Amino acid sequence: MGKHESIPTPAVRRLSLYLRQLEAFRDSNLRTVSSKQLGQALRITDAQVRKDLAYFGQFGQPGIGYDVEELITKVRQILGTDRTWPVLLVGTGNLGRALVSYKGFQSKGFEVVAIFDDNPALHGKAFGENGPKVLPMEMLDAVVKDTQIRLAILSVPATVAQSVTDIMIAAGVKGILNFAPVALQVPRGVNVSNVDLAVHLEQLSFGIGSSGV
Amino acid sequence: MGKHESIPTPAVRRLSLYLRQLEAFRDSNLRTVSSKQLGQALRITDAQVRKDLAYFGQFGQPGIGYDVEELITKVRQILGTDRTWPVLLVGTGNLGRALVSYKGFQSKGFEVVAIFDDNPALHGKAFGENGPKVLPMEMLDAVVKDTQIRLAILSVPATVAQSVTDIMIAAGVKGILNFAPVALQVPRGVNVSNVDLAVHLEQLSFGIGSSGV
């Protein structure tokens, strides 16, 4: 681990939220923002905002606040998204295809540059304009080693998720965005972010239940 | 707000995580589980686990722990997913189609029962086997009022997300799972859960950056 090792995971997660909010402020032509404004927009205390940002150095000026553009640049640097990350994707079912063309990735600094699927009928096909062609799984190892891709999106059935994960990690992948409904086993130094969309609906159904509707 | 009004949002979010882990424990034939086991699996302190579950009453027995099956039932009751929730979906691009057939919803108690799109070419078409047919937006109000659907999945372009949201809320929708990259304005009593998949990749790119790779 490097310079960021002591930063708690929730603070890192909030950085993404700060970034979204700052971009919204910028789009509304706001030049400076206070920790209070940032906190109110995200329902976080201003003390928490100042504490989180202090992990990464001093940005704000007392009485003036933060320069919006400067803070966006800084947060993107910290998150590592001030440059474009090449990403590979495995599994081109409906979800995989949707993810290939998901505009939110590219605009945030992630580009799907390689797509793999074990269905021979799909090999050589491309989804979307100028998108990469689907490659056979057997090529994953060589492609990752050649291109130094470190991030992967996994949208395969649960039954094959672990075996695909093992192949990706052996090739050098360090971060996996996992859509398969299964807990992946990975070695130290590899991070997994699980996307379980039902969790979001559960939170909403709880909210409705608690409103007595 | 009702009986759950004083429960902090992070605790509610952790309930979904407890539920996933408990289901994994059950699938491994574990009958009872301690707060320590549950906490270790999720990297949460056992004190936090006990505190979270205490919001919802006393379940565990000192020295024995929690009955896995009983706790699953209880957490599902609290989250409101001990029954099936009908859900509507608006927008049938690649992502919308993926979500219609996303198995994680149905297995967790959510069923997409109505699909809307403003593209006339899609009206009457169904995605997947026995899935509901795509209906015109003009029918949304009547369908929601007739069927009492309270949860909606929004997978439309950002430009129309707010206008579709207004229509859904006027019809009676109380919870929206939003995939459009835009901050929706909703009245009090309506909850929005935003899915921004780039946030997950940002967390992973941060992890790689901090490993010095």
Structure described in brief:
The structure is a homodimer of 213-residue chains. Chain A is α/β, with parallel strands linked by helices and 213 residues long.
Q: What is the strand content of chain A?
A: 5-15%
Can you count the beta strands of chain A? Answer: 8
Instruction: Write the CATH fold name of the largest domain in chain A.
Output: Rossmann fold
User: How far is it from the N-terminal to the C-terminal residue of chain A, by CA?
Assistant: 48 Å
Which residues of chain A sit in consecutive blocks of at least 5 with pLDDT less than 50? Answer: none
Structural class of chain A: alpha/beta
Order of helices and strands of chain A: HEHHEHEHHEEHEHEEH
The CATH architecture of the largest domain in chain A would be 3-Layer(aba) Sandwich
Q: Oligomer, anyone?
A: homodimer
CATH superfamily of the largest domain in chain A: NAD(P)-binding Rossmann-like Domain
The most extensive interface, with participating residues per chain, is: A-B, 65 and 65 residues
How many distinct helices of chain A?
9
Which CATH class of the largest domain in chain A is shown?
A: Alpha Beta
Strand order of the largest sheet of chain A: 5-4-3-6-7-8
Using only CA atoms, what is the Rg of chain A?
Answer: 20 Å
Taken together, the total number of domains of chain A comes to 2
Averaged pLDDT of chain A:
85
Q: Major sheet of chain A, described briefly? A: 6 strands, parallel
Give the helix level of chain A as a range of percent: 40-55%
